[in-house]
Write a structure and sequence with these properties.
globular; 3-stranded mixed β-sheet; Hypothetical Protein Aq_1857, Chain: A; 122 residues; 4-stranded mixed β-sheet; mainly beta; 9 strands
Length: 122
């Protein structure tokens, strides 16, 4: 029986990794990583969440990409599978952007999204 490597739930672009490293280095608290999740909210139904993680919680998925440790809340894994996190700087704004293949729509203001859980291979 051969086993295959599990795909990463999330990946980071270079820009996102550098921005996260900078933010975490300037934190006053002891930080072990960036916690990413989802919550119900907004006009499209769901919102991405991000916060400093001072410890790893039980059942969190841990992804290390480009030197950044991302802790993913268990209920968010199927919604984030295959997501690439980017950091964009534009003329009048800058921020993190989630390029999520499971996203089915987004609201006009960009604050919330509709996401369908990824289908697992049989």
């Amino acid at each position: 029986m051969t086993t295959r490597e599990r795909p990463k739930v999330m990946t980071l672009t270079e820009d996102a990794a550098q921005r996260i490293k900078t933010i975490m280095a300037n934190s006053d608290d002891d930080v072990v990583g960036l916690r990413v999740g989802i919550k119900k909210g907004g006009c499209a139904g769901m919102e991405y969440t991000m916060e400093y993680a001072s410890e790893q919680r039980q059942h969190e998925e841990v992804v290390v990409d480009k030197g950044v440790r991302i802790l993913i809340e268990p209920k968010a894994v199927l919604f984030l599978l295959g997501t690439e996190m980017d950091y964009r700087t534009e003329k009048l704004s800058s921020g993190f952007v989630f390029n999520n293949p499971n996203e089915t729509s987004a609201c006009g203001c960009g604050e919330s999204v509709a996401i369908t859980p990824a289908k697992l291979d049989a």
